Amino acid sequence: MNVIANKWIGQRTIRPDGADKVTGRACYAADNTMPGMIWGKVLRSPHAHALIRSIDTSKAEKLPGVKAVVTAKDLVEFPVDKPVPLGIQDMRWMSRNIMAREKALFHGHPIAAVAAINEEVAAEACKLIEVDYEVLPHAIEIEDAIKPHAPILHDFVRFEGKPSNIAGTMVNKVGDVEAGFAEADIVIERTFTTRPVHQGYIEPQACTVSCTADGKVTIWSSSQGQFMVRAMTSFLTGITQSNIRAIPAEIGGGFGAKTIIYLEPLATVLAKKSGRPVKMVMTREEVMRATGPTSGSRSTVKIGAKKDGTLVAAQGTFYLQAGALPGSPLRGPVGCSFSPYYIPNILSTGYDVVSNRSKVAAYRAPGAPLGAFAAECVIDEICEKLGLDPLEFRLKNSSKEGQKAVYGATFGKITFEETVEAALKHPHYKAPLDKNPRPGVKRGRGVASGFWFNAGGESSAQVNITEDGNVAVTTGHPDVGGSRASIANVTAELLGIDHSRISVLIGDTASIGFSNLTGGSRVTFASAIVVTQSTEKVIGQLKERAARIWKIDPDAVTWENGEARPAGPNAGKFPPLSLEDLAAKANEMGGPIGAGTQLNTTGADPGFATHIVDVEVDVDLAIVRVLRYSAVQDVGRALHPSYVEGQIQGGVVQGIGWALSEEYLFDKQGKLENAGFLDYRMPVCSDVPMIEPVMLEIPNPKHPQGVRGVGEAPIVPVLAAITNAVHDALGKRFCDLPLSPPRVSAALDAAAE
Predict the structure, then answer these.
(1) Is residue 59 within a helix (H) or strand (E), and if so which, with residue range?
(2) What is the average pLDDT score of the chain?
(3) pLDDT tens digits, residue range 663-717?
(4) Domains along the chain with CATH numbers
(5) From CA 533, how far away is CA 464, in angstroms rounded?
């Protein structure tokens, strides 16, 4: 797509944080130390489900070197009968997740925490805490949790008037789905399952908390939002937000999982009780056992079409695991599954199911890949039955401007058709594929499409001109996906100076205005808006300063290529004034030069992606290998193309792991068996091909630079695309993920019988 030529926007500039990260100088949360610092450790439940009769911490408190012990009684308790919302979270459940109260609800559930002079003493003290448990029956899987006589996790959860593990529902509807199916010539209904998978960030959760004698708390932590850390810690400890300062460290991955907290309130109370700074760092095993994976799911999708390939009706029923406490991402499958398509009659229903596993957390387009897996596989089967090209079918049924999505929005200018057209024309789709390259090996090709809402939200920025004529930009979002590099490019473009003169900083809660989380594919979109507005204000100030010097009207001054120039009748009368010139005269002409913007940004139109994948199946070993992958996506305007490509490639790689190898495995006692990277099988380099990102740059008209969120849509189609490719290779439909060798082998053996 043609885009406006820019000097810095769209360039692959050097990333501001790159050198520090590759040389080890970057400071992550676990790198923080303070004078007098002590260490915190957590005692965790050895049972998947157990009543806590009593907790005796006296022996731990008497151990030499122990400075403080906390249990749930040291944290704020919220009544369960009234929601306590904070963003999309409910503090009732967050309180019970970070520390067990009446019951331990999963293996690894925190029971108590200890602060001591070192990690060894803290760990020893945890062993001395005596907990009297009454072990209860547990339910791990969705099927077990919704059985008529399943163990009930929470007496206060009701469904259809009875105690239940179904903690909530969501329904989206358009048209009359029964009438729609009556019009269909072909109706296909299938049930699909996926397993919980972990976000797999390299850096475990970590924090250091200091509490001064006057009650001021400072938190250094790894998170996707320092304002979220401040607010949640305030809710859970009872300390007012004005007395909490949250400082973001560099973040070693999050993918949505670090939009909630686990350690910060515990460390805060320990620091307050002990009078010493407290540091806490999770082990990898603790991360896997007690922080949120994404939901496992059971989805039933029914789609009807006419003989000519026109979609007429769709129904989706999605059961998602919430973990031990309510709050699965129902909005993802319920709202996204059918949104790429115009289907006049849709009924999409989601059920939030609690079970004895760690509470889920967001993971890249939360819930959307689960729904797309089911819907896109059924669409592929319809195409096969009708003898239609799967991409031509998608093009025929694509959503268009002015149509109402099942989740309620009326689409503006959307670009799903463009992604399908680009995939149809791509050499990958046209390339011949040898289906039987050698004995015992079969190959197949699959396609799938995906949708994500995207988001705007609250953001703040401050742009200041330094005394030497350079620029410092401060935003309020942790940089997870390259926002600093993108913002440097935008600011340099607007000011007309070299991007190396821009420093982009991430402010803490005391130095920048409120900014929402880094998540939802919102940060580059939102921060570019507030930085643009701040920079434009600064340019206005620079023009005013130049006008004063020249004693002309500010409207007679232009700003071009980093200089103020007289315009109109005054053109050429005065030599241009550079940014350095104006900075040097700042004190004479009114003082420091800078401006800020705080805004609830809007205009974040949705994102669409269409993927093509070739796979190879070793029939004897039942191993699926990905040979070639092309991911087409409308990215709006790529402010920094390398980062955009990286987002697309990263989403695909995570989807490959989800589709082929990753899953949580529990034993009969409800204990996670593969709580480490050795046994939890994430993709490594040898598992993935070179992934080709195909960026369609169709500028978003609602954004000053045309930006559209890109971080989440790339993972949405992957599960279905790979599953469809495996069907093309083997002639067998798979409805359960991951397609690991044991599962594929069992299916092949069953087909041979």
Answers:
(1) helix 58-62
(2) 97
(3) 999 999 999 999 999 999 999 999 999 999 999 999 999 999 999 999 999 999 9
(4) 18-24+455-601 (3.30.365.10), 32-136+200-290 (3.90.1170.50), 297-454+605-752 (3.30.365.10)
(5) 13
